Design the sequence.
């Protein structure tokens, strides 16, 4: 602790200094002054814990000095007044000005020392009490904040209708504005991967402090930590883009890294809070290390989370069809689908999912073509491990499958397209069933429209004409080589209406089935 002694008589000043110097090891710094003017400057500079001052000083008295010190906000030292006056008026005035004790000259060193030690004890006790009170207040605030955040998080995780007890809790936390004002939900995530848990926790702590300080300027806003150790904001501030930009700027200014903010749609109903929360998390996940996107609005995402696509099958169809533009589109959409998955929370996890996706597409291509275009899965993984953004990943996957397209395109020039050959094989095997273009396309795992165009290009006739011709040829053989009735043959070649079969047969051959049977 620091003590200043103010005394104009040099002998007395030296005696007091020597007494204090060996009095108590809690006294760390001793300061002396011989006038009130000098003392005021030193007090302002050092803010000593104890002031020992004589009343009678040159030019300005010790009491006048204490009066001037009343203007030092937040500074409350212990004051021990020394005087040769025994008049009660001086003692009373000293106490009014904040003096803790009063001692008469000549100073008894033992009594003086006891008074100073008592003041040291009081200061230590007050500091301990103050620290305890501060800790208790802090714990109370933390507990209150924890309960509030837990309550708000529950509203975000589960769709909640506004009931009386819910409104009462909102009023306790001064959040009743959520029931009457439109709002947005924003989720914040650092746009890179932390190296370890400690670094991650420090990042989250820093982001939370910066965002909380900023939100003091935006009434009707609340910040809380969500279950994914990200920060979430609910705000009624209408210019949400301005708020998002300010958060980004402040975090970059102090922490020198970028964050991604996912922004929900503007909500008007209290019970839509869980939907808004989900929207913000989905939008926040999308960039995953793509530094070109830092504020993502859910409304801007052309994505239907309820629609399920078999992207490996769609992409393999595009590769075989040579639809390069659509192939690129499917790769982008498929990666976004992977990024939305709950278990994907980092770019590394997205890379693992993309690797599995490539293997699925490759397997689908092999099944459709009955051919193996060999490559090393280990080399594929090593190359993907070098990627650092979604944009790089899209380009890599595109180049990978473009190579496969060129390979299959070269194969086409050798003979009939393998897809058409497989379609014809299915038709030969199943012509007597209720066969259709859609069923064949499904079995080949290709799009029916693409199969129709390819079939016409490769065989010179459309799918239905080829199937009809195949059935008529089989019917002709059985009409000539068996004694079965015509309606039986009709059923055997895939038709259930003998009259319809007869019309088709005559259109193709120029005669009826009966005429054909008995003709030479």
Sequence:
């Amino acid at each position: 602790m620091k003590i200043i002694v103010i005394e104009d008589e040099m002998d007395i000043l030296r005696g007091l200094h020597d007494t204090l110097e060996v009095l108590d090891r809690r006294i760390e710094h001793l300061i002396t002054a011989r006038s009130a003017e000098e003392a005021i400057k030193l007090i302002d500079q050092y803010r000593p814990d104890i002031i020992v001052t004589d009343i009678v000083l040159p030019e300005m008295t010790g009491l006048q000095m204490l009066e001037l010190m009343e203007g030092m906000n937040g500074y409350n030292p212990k004051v021990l007044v020394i005087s040769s006056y025994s008049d009660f008026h001086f003692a009373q005035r000293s106490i009014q000005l904040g003096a803790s004790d009063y001692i008469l000259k000549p100073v008894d060193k033992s009594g003086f020392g006891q008074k100073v030690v008592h003041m040291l004890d009081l200061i230590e006790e007050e500091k301990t009490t103050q620290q305890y009170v501060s800790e208790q207040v802090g714990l109370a605030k933390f507990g209150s904040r924890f309960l509030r955040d837990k309550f708000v998080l529950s509203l975000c995780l589960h769709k909640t209708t506004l009931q009386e007890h819910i409104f009462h809790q909102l009023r306790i936390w001064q959040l009743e504005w959520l029931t009457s004002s439109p709002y947005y939900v924003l989720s914040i995530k650092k746009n890179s991967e932390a190296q370890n848990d400690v670094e991650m926790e420090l990042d989250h702590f820093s982001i939370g402090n910066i965002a909380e300080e900023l939100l003091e300027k935006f009434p009707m806003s609340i910040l809380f930590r969500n279950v994914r150790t990200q920060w979430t904001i609910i705000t009624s501030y209408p210019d949400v883009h301005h708020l998002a930009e300010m958060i980004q700027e402040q975090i970059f200014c102090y922490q020198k890294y970028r964050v991604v903010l996912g922004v929900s749609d503007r909500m008007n109903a209290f019970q839509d809070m869980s939907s808004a929360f989900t929207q913000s998390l989905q939008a926040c996940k999308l960039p995953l290390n793509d530094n070109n996107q830092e504020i993502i609005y859910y409304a801007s995402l052309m994505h239907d989370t309820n629609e399920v696509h078999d992207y490996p099958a769609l992409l393999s169809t595009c590769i075989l069809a040579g639809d390069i533009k659509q192939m690129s589109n499917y790769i982008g959409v498929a990666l976004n689908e992977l990024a939305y998955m709950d278990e994907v929370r980092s770019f590394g996890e997205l890379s693992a999912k993309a690797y599995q996706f490539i293997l699925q597409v490759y397997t689908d291509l092999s099944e459709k073509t009955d051919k193996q275009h060999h490559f090393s899965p280990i080399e594929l993984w090593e190359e993907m491990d070098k990627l650092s953004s979604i944009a790089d990943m899209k380009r890599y996957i595109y180049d990978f499958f473009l190579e496969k397209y060129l390979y299959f395109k070269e194969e086409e020039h050798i003979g009939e397209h393998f897809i058409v050959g497989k379609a014809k094989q299915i038709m030969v095997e199943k012509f007597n069933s209720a066969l259709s273009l859609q069923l064949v396309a499904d079995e080949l795992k290709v799009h029916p429209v693409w199969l129709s165009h390819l079939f016409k290009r490769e065989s010179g006739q459309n799918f239905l004409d080829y199937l009809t011709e195949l059935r008529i040829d089989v019917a002709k053989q059985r009409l000539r080589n068996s004694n079965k009735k015509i309606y039986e043959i009709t059923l055997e070649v895939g038709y259930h209406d003998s009259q319809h079969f007869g019309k088709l047969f005559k259109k193709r051959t120029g005669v009826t089935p009966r005429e054909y049977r008995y003709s030479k």
The two ends are 128 Å apart (CA to CA).
